[in-house]
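Quick illustration, no need to memorize.
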Amino acid sequence: MGTYNVNREVTDQFYRYKMPKIIAKVEGKGNGIKTVIVNMTDVAKALGRPPTYPTKYFGCELGAQTQFDAKNDRYIVNGSHDANKLQDLLDGFIKRFVLCPECDNPETQLSVKAKAGMIGQRCIACGHGDQIDMRHKLTTFILKNPPQDETAMTAAASTPGKKDKGGKKGKKGKDGETCNGDASPEAGNGDNAIKRLKSKNEEEDEDDVDWGEDVSDAAVQARRMQELTGAVSSMVVTDDLEKTPAERVNIFYNFVKKMKEDERLTGVENEKSIVGEADRLDIKDKGCLILVELLLNTSILQQAKTHRNLFLRFTHENAKAQKSLIGGLEQLIGVEYKDVLMPKVAHIFKLFYDLDIIEEEVLLEWASKGPSKKYVKKEVSKEIHEKAKAFIEWLRDAEEEESSEDEDDELDVVYSHTGKVGQTEAIKPAKEATPDKQEEEEEEDDDINIDDI
């Protein structure tokens, strides 16, 4: 059986975290067709997660029902699915629920706080602790089936029920819970089993306490604020979402401003906090307006590189956010620092294009619509469009050259009527340049070469 690196983005052949390749077997036909993941237990063991988690993740991503039969070691996803497709989906599970966001190692453990509606993740390798992004559907399943319960359930299902000394199987306790026989003398009593479970949970809660933490009133209060219950958090979100868009933008402005004052704008965790706040306030598409206002000034050419990752978290595959970013740049160039930045318009737009923050299609659409008074005065917008004209023309020419490459390679071939049998000749269409066309070409030669900007 072949193996992959757990983090398949790592190509080092000596990478010590390995997992077996997924083996999928399609069974049945018609409406009853299903895919059995033959070695899901081994894969999950390599990831340090219960096998039900990745199986359920596949179901969420594929929109298919899942079935778990731990006793027979069968983990099933309804429908016909290729092993390579499931392997690619598993990469998404690993990135979301296994890898440490700080060191990218898969040595993480999950801790479920069901009452608070939160799932924590702590890395054994680097000690980093964080909360799992709760927006994925799998988190609901994990909250209802914590890792400890899942492990116990899998072990119990895969082991035949033992008989106690009296020859009877597990008895029912007072609460009606069935408890299988255990090796210890206490196992024959349902109440004792429940007490042991409660005692175990209490011990785990005590283990979570860091006795080296600051226990001052201020520190305790700060930790309590950070560990708001899920109910309180949802109330905060609901209250803010009832506010007007302008008020929510203002909240986000103050949040980013405070992050800037605390010098917490760079780094994965800080960037996630900023994006998370924009998501919470439902203003992610407009967030770039605030980022431009607070993060950029006359040193924009360097600042854009510094904060590239943060901008990308907003604009990646998000045309609306990219348009808002262009609007913010118009305000920055045409209002805030007009004298300094207006001559650098082409430089600025090319930089944001080269950094992949703004895509070519969005820039061409902005140029084709022409000046607008949405963000600045129409006269100012017109001036910015004029300054960016050389760069836009460069983009268009590059696009046309790329699309016409294949056409230039194709030649019309006809049989020669004068040559030998089977001899062919290529006919290339020739166009004479008109005087007007020659003048246009001369004007284009005088345009600014964007590569020299």
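The first strand starts at residue 3 and ends at 5.
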